[in-house]
Design brief:
By secondary structure, the chain is α+β, with helices and mostly antiparallel strands. It has one domain: Penicillin V Acylase, Chain A. 15% of the residues lie in helices and 30% in strands. The strands form 2 sheets. The chain has a 7-stranded antiparallel β-sheet, with helices on one face. The longest helix has 12 residues. The model has no long low-confidence stretch (mean pLDDT 92).
């Protein structure tokens, strides 16, 4: 179960801020965010080396896409396309709205169930595919303010992680990308469970079966005015190539 935390403030200098923890089997190979796809040179994202797709990626036009498994659908399935393709297909578009509606027309039966977020500095959408029983992929605008998404529905208190941490993110100081202060969110993304024996209530997961939190990202998109300023304000992407709290966040693109 991966986790996305999204703060939408359309009139702000930084209208979209995202925190993301990737949870996966530790033996599933991956590579840190980079330009891994020769046929998509404008895309930067983490590479799932097994499927060739991505769990979180962004294009040079400022469109961001992140895909999560829904509950009970971890891993590939025979006859199904990789969900990691969805993020890359979304980034073939220059605007989040166009990408969301295009992917909403895909065949839901071609994939295992998923949650997908597509966003830019103007718009943000949550796409839900419930799996075999789905009549179609649902496309829903992402509300303003603070939102959380896991393997459940958006802001769903049935999710132990959302129940435990949504109130804490809501009251935490918002990140300040311009000054580099992400400390409150970094601490929360590294937090373990407050519910004894309920690992799903942790932001950072460590399980004995080899499943756990493998990496973490912090992303901020600048406003349209900032993007076209002189000099332009560039998106911020910090990546921890390991469990947050144990692995430092480093800027993506800086070698």
């Amino acid at each position: 179960m991966c986790t996305l935390v999204l703060l939408r403030r359309p009139e702000h200098d930084w209208p979209l801020i995202l925190g993301a923890n990737r949870d996966e089997m530790v033996d599933r190979p991956s590579r840190p965010p980079g330009r891994h796809w020769p046929d998509r040179p404008e895309v930067v994202g983490g590479l799932d080396a097994l499927s060739g797709g991505s769990w979180l990626a962004m294009n040079d036009q400022g469109v961001l896409a992140a895909v999560l498994n829904r509950r009970g659908s971890l891993g590939p399935a025979a006859g199904k396309r990789s969900r990691g393709e969805l993020a890359l297909e979304a980034l073939d578009h220059a605007e989040a709205a166009a990408a969301a509606w295009a992917l909403g027309d895909l065949d839901p039966g071609a994939y295992r169930s998923f949650n997908l977020v597509i966003a830019d500095e103007r718009d943000a959408f949550w796409l839900r595919n419930r799996g075999e029983e789905a009549e179609g992929i649902e496309v829903m605008p992402l509300p303003r303010g603070l939102n959380m998404l896991t393997a459940f529905d958006l802001n769903d208190p049935v999710s132990p992680r959302i129940r435990s941490f949504l109130p804490r993110f809501e009251t935490a100081p918002a990140p300040e990308p311009a000054t580099g202060d992400w400390s409150a969110w970094q601490a929360l993304l590294a937090a373990r469970s407050d519910e004894e024996g309920v690992e799903e209530a942790a932001m950072t997961v460590i399980r004995e079966d080899g499943f756990g939190t493998l990496s973490s990202s912090l992303v901020a998109l600048p406003s349209v005015e900032g993007r076209f300023a002189s000099p332009p304000v560039r998106p911020v992407w910090l990546f921890a190539d390991g469990r947050p709290g144990e692995t430092p966040y480093r800027p993506v693109g800086d070698e």
